[in-house]
Specification:
Shape: elongated
CATH class of the largest domain: Alpha Beta
Number of helices: 7
CATH architecture of the largest domain: 2-Layer Sandwich
Number of domains: 2
Bound molecules: S-adenosyl-L-homocysteine
Oligomer: single chain
Structural class: alpha/beta
CATH topology of the largest domain: Methyltransferase, Cobalt-precorrin-4 Transmethylase, Domain 2
Distance between the termini: 59 Å
Largest sheet: 5 strands, parallel
Radius of gyration: 19 Å
Number of strands: 13
CATH superfamily of the largest domain: Tetrapyrrole methylase, C-terminal domain
Strand content: 15-25%
């Protein structure tokens, strides 16, 4: 009898993987995952059996992973955290009597935040702009209410060719509630090869800087930029007092 590990491998750079994630990958006989993510952990899986599929193969991947885990130890991998737009939910929905352990990882928002400063210091939320599994009307409603509620907002899956205007529309919704000088960070490939980070404001934001390998973090009403760092204060202290 084997075990299925649902593993968040972190943002990509191997140093940012948890010790537990590395350990369970090492003790797995089979690794299941999207081709691009498999390549990120190549040095750890040289002699292992690999089952990889393209982007849209999630259900097949989960089925296969559950099936193999009856006899062998299997790791099914997601980037970041497996429980945040990753594989953990689907595996638990599909699981019958297989043994499953979810291993958490450093998600894109916290990885990206560490690069630009401390933007997530106060209440914050993640919203995925992907409308493959969520109606766009609901996405817009959540963006608008998060803006009204003054949450710092991390936008996952912010832009793709199939929905070129959604990011701009969502930024415009946020502008109804936030000042034009609110910081907006675009971090591409956080904590992995080809990392790039840019800081804009809502007024000079350029969505061309954004692609599917990026995450966008929009500050709350108290966020500011100081010495090229994006900071959201924890309380309402006046920084002149420090
Ligand atoms: N489970 C993942 C999220 C998968 S959704 C996690 O917890 O991070 C895929 C989206 O995550 C991408 O479109 C991008 O918006 C974001 N993302 C994942 N890794 C990233 C990274 N290293 N840098 C920037 N954005 C990343």
């Amino acid at each position: 009898m084997g075990k299925l590990y649902v593993v968040g491998i972190g943002p990509g750079g191997l140093e940012y993987m948890t010790v537990r994630a590395k350990k369970v990958i090492e003790k797995s006989d089979v690794i299941v995952g999207y081709t691009k993510y498999i390549s990120m952990i190549k040095p750890l899986i040289e002699n292992k059996e690999i089952f990889s599929t393209g982007m849209r193969g999630e259900i097949d991947r989960c089925k296969k992973a559950l099936e193999i885990s009856k006899d062998k130890n299997v790791a099914i991998i997601s980037t970041g955290d497996a429980g945040i737009y990753g594989m953990a939910g689907l595996i638990l929905q599909m699981k019958k009597d297989e043994e499953v352990e979810v291993v958490p990882g450093v998600t894109a928002s916290t990885a990206a935040a560490s690069i630009v400063g401390a933007p997530l210091m106060h209440d914050n939320c993640n919203i995925s702009l992907s409308d493959l599994l969520t109606p766009y009307e609901l996405i817009k409603k959540r963006v608008e209410l998060a803006a009204e509620g003054d949450f710092v907002i991390s936008l996952y899956n912010p832009r793709s060719k199939g929905r070129p205007n959604h990011l701009k529309e969502c930024i415009n919704l946020i502008k109804k509630y936030r000042k034009g000088d609110t910081p907006v960070a675009v971090i591409k490939n956080a904590l992995r090869e080809n990392q790039d980070a840019k800081i804009f404001t809502l007024d000079n934001f350029m969505e061309d800087a954004v692609d599917m390998l990026s995450i966008v973090i929009i500050g709350n009403s108290k966020s500011y930029i100081d010495k090229q760092m994006f900071i959201t204060p924890r309380g309402y202290e006046n920084k002149e007092k420090f």
